[in-house]
Write a structure and sequence with these properties.
The complex is a heterodimer of chains A (about 280) and B (about 425). Chain A is an alpha+beta fold and about 280 residues long. Helix content of chain A is about 20%, strand content about 35%. Chain A has helices at about 15-20, 45-55, 65-80, 185-195, 200, 205, 220-230; strands at about 5, 35-40, 95-100, 110-125, 125-135, 140-150, 180, 240-245, 250-260, 265-270, 275-285. Chain A has an eleven-stranded mixed β-sheet with strand order 1-2-4-5-6-3-8-11-10-9-7, covered by helices on one side. Chain A is globular and about 50 Å long. The two termini of chain A are about 35 Å apart. The model of chain A has no long low-confidence stretch (mean pLDDT about 90). Chain B has about 425 residues and is α+β, with helices and mostly antiparallel strands. The longest helix of chain B has 20 residues, at about 195-215. In chain B, helix 3 packs across helix 14 (about 390-410). Classes of the chains: A alpha+beta (about 280), B alpha+beta (about 425).
Chain lengths: ~280, ~425
């Protein structure tokens, strides 16, 4: 029987990070049988406005496609900071994310947000787990996000990992929106999304964790991409899939190239100076 | 075979409109930019008329208070909307006449066969207003930028004075007279003997009419909620002449001052859009016209040295418009006279009734006469809705088109007509005739 933990308000993420930094992965083989839930969540219009401005979405009644992730993220942190969660909170890498919108959500909708972990599996470089966020308005699940995290560890060459689609369609696409992500990008987005993971905050904090500079939030660069594409997407019945590749070191200049097909968009977010693939996105409807 | 000779002029149809509720400045929309509001308004129109992915002939809109970064505001909004990105767009700006002038431009292109369908609109925010650096700082920075050497650059910067650091905030002031629009209006109100009681009555009626229109669902297909606002939040349904009579005057001086915050429009944020098309395009898209855009006339007055009141230009535009169309002022079922101030509407009506003004200023043998006040601003106007400058024209065009459509359904045997009059800064006035 799944245990349900109902939170009355948003959890304090800074405290979770502070305690998690001290905790090592327990090496459990299973996942906590837990659903963390918040009911009747209302979107803070001020936070939505800051998110929209930062990611260049139009501020409107309709929630930007990735926005509900921000509502689920603190609950993900609660699941991942459980003592019997098999991965360390700091050091787990967000490698893949799939969002499915079945009904457009608006600022006015009171939302129920529920998060659970599932599908603990082997990966060639360690293990992976999915954190599933379900956002419903009324009785209906309107928005579902699956965030896949990787914890590096014992290698499993035989394991099969999800690979992004082939990028052949992008060969003829020469240009696209180009953005400068400044040195402060990580702190700016942490202030909006609440993800204060030290790797995003400052080089001094990122270095001990193996990064030469702070790196941009995947959810930020992904949101920028979706903002550039959303006017061409239908409002519902959309699946937005992102595979995060090389992290974006701050500061950086990145470019989004997209091939538009029938009911599909394939995009690559890449470095402009260095030949790095930062993320592959596929939108289907 | 080439067809380069002029094509016959066609009728331009108004198919409908969309706006977001207007909100008092520094409130519900404080975080929204002009581009946010215009894009959301376009998307609401797209949703209402199934225009997603549709290439329009053009989108024309504008804003009065505009950031320099918004040089291509309308095109940027189109690119952020669900419209086909192959839709061209341009900005216009004619102060409070912007929205109506945009509709005239689109209607004319449709009439000439240059576009099949287009969107006219406008947006304005007094909350997210542009703040410029002072003229002193601007000149200093430009000089420093031009300087070729470091010493020259430092010399240029050294000329900066502390007072230069105070930013320039946009003001509702006529550049050539230094008077605010309210102060100008107070002069005109006094000249025409517009009383406090008349103004408060008009203001109360505006709130009462707007509230009644909302209550009967009139705006259900004209307004899309935005950021939690579902009705114009300046609306005071229970506003009475007695309450309005208690407010202190804000424009004009001395015991004769009559203008208050209650009978003047407040600073407001909002956006509006109107869908216009040829008859053929409408039929192809299975959309039925609400009304037709018949004609328009814009006038300007020489207000700088006090020869005429700043907001009196519609008094000149309307007679010219009527003469050209063989109509009298009484030939209308509805009058939409923008309530910049209650006194603006009342002064215009008095001018059209006045034999001397008609003869001396308009060169007419007889005055235009009075109108049936029961046909004036029947679903409320700017005193109640608020007045986000460039958004007012779109609000009025869509509202009047729907009113005419309703009237036509009740009385299908005859042509029903509406007159629009909008005064604008710079002594300008934009007027138009719609019919169904």
């Amino acid at each position: 029987m799944t245990r349900e933990l109902v939170l009355e308000g948003p959890p304090d993420l800074r405290r979770i990070y502070a305690t998690a930094a001290l905790k090592r992965a327990a090496g459990h083989d299973g996942l906590p049988d837990l659903r963390v839930v918040r009911r009747g969540v209302t979107v803070d219009p001020d936070n939505l406005a800051r998110y929209a401005r930062a990611c260049q979405f139009t501020l409107s009644e309709r929630l930007p496609l990735p926005y509900p992730h921000l509502l689920g993220f603190p609950l993900q942190m609660v699941v991942m900071s459980q003592h019997d969660f098999p991965f360390p909170l700091v050091g787990s890498i967000h490698v893949e994310n799939v969002i499915t919108v079945s009904k457009p959500l608006t600022l006015a909708d009171p939302l129920d947000v529920a998060v659970h972990a599932e599908n603990l599996r082997l990966h060639p470089k360690g293990r992976q787990v999915d954190l599933v966020t379900e956002v419903s308005s009324g009785d209906q699940t309107a928005w579902r996000g699956v965030s896949t995290y990787l914890a590096r560890g014992a290698e499993h060459p035989e394991a099969v990992a999800s690979e992004p689609p082939t990028l052949d369609a992008l060969e003829s696409v020469r240009s696209g929106p180009t953005w400068r992500f400044g040195e402060r990008t990580g702190r700016m987005f942490a202030g909006i999304g609440g993800d204060w993971n030290p790797i995003h905050v400052h080089p001094i904090l990122a270095k001990p964790l193996g990064f030469p500079t702070a790196i941009a939030h995947g959810m930020y660069s992904y949101s920028r991409c979706v903002a550039a594409l959303q006017p061409r997407l239908p409002q519902s019945g959309v699946t937005s899939h992102v595979w995060f590749r090389k992290p974006i070191r701050l500061p950086s200049t990145v470019r989004l190239r997209t091939a538009f097909e029938h009911h599909r968009m394939l995009s690559l977010l890449e470095g402009v100076k260095r030949d790095l693939d930062h993320a592959v996105l596929e939108h289907t409807w | 075979m080439p067809q380069t000779s002029p094509r016959p002029v066609r009728r331009a149809a108004i198919l409908g409109g969309n706006r977001i509720p207007f909100a008092r400045a520094h409130g519900a929309y404080a975080r929204a930019s002009n581009q946010d509001m215009l894009t959301a308004t376009l998307d609401g129109l797209v949703a209402r008329f199934g225009l997603a992915g549709e290439r329009m002939g053009e989108v024309v809109a504008g804003a009065v208070l505009k950031h320099s970064r918004d040089f291509n505001l309308t095109r940027e909004s189109v690119l952020g909307s669900q419209l086909d990105p192959h839709t061209p767009a341009y900005d216009v700006q004619q102060a409070c006449g912007t929205g109506l002038e945009a509709a005239i431009l689109v209607a004319n292109k449709i009439a000439l066969g240059q576009v099949e369908a287009g969107i006219a609109g406008g947006t304005d925010t007094a909350s997210d207003a542009p703040i410029a650096v002072s003229e002193g700082l601007r000149q200093t920075l430009l000089a420093a930028n031009r300087a070729k050497t470091l010493p020259d650059r430092l010399k240029a910067l050294a000329s900066l004075r502390p007072a230069d650091l105070v930013p320039a905030i946009p003001q509702n002031v006529e550049p050539r007279t230094g008077l605010s629009m309210g102060e100008h209006m107070a002069l005109t109100a006094e000249e025409w003997g517009v009383t406090r009681a008349e103004q408060d009555e008009l203001a109360a009626a505006s709130h009462r009419h707007l509230a009644a229109a909302y209550d009967r669902g009139f705006f259900d297909d004209l307004v899309t909620p935005y950021l939690g606002v579902t009705r114009d939040n300046n609306l005071r349904p229970d506003s009475t002449v007695e309450q309005l009579g208690k407010l202190r005057t804000v424009f004009g001086r001395g015991p004769d001052a009559t203008m208050t915050a209650g009978n003047s429009t407040p600073l407001t944020d909002g956006a509006s859009a109107v869908l216009l098309a040829s008859e053929e395009w409408a039929a192809e898209h299975r959309l039925s016209p609400l009304a037709w855009f018949v004609d328009a006339e814009t006038a300007a007055v020489d207000y700088v040295h006090g020869h005429e009141g700043l907001l009196m230009a519609p008094a000149y535009a309307v007679p010219r418009l009527l003469a050209r169309n063989g109509l009298t002022l009484q030939d209308f079922d509805f009058y939409e006279i923008h309530e910049a101030f209650a006194a603006t509407v009342l002064a215009l009506l008095k001018a059209w009734e006045d034999p001397r003004f008609s003869k001396e200023r308009l060169g007419l043998d007889a005055p235009l006469g009075s109108i049936d006040r029961a046909r004036l601003n029947v679903t409320g106007s700017s005193l109640a809705t608020g007045h986000p400058f460039a958004a007012t024209g779109g609000r009025i065009v869509a509202t009047l088109a729907k009113l005419l459509h309703e009237k036509k359904q009740q009385d299908p045997g005859r042509t029903v007509r509406g007159l629009i009059s909008i005064c604008a800064a710079g002594g300008q006035g934009v007027t138009a005739i719609l019919e169904a």
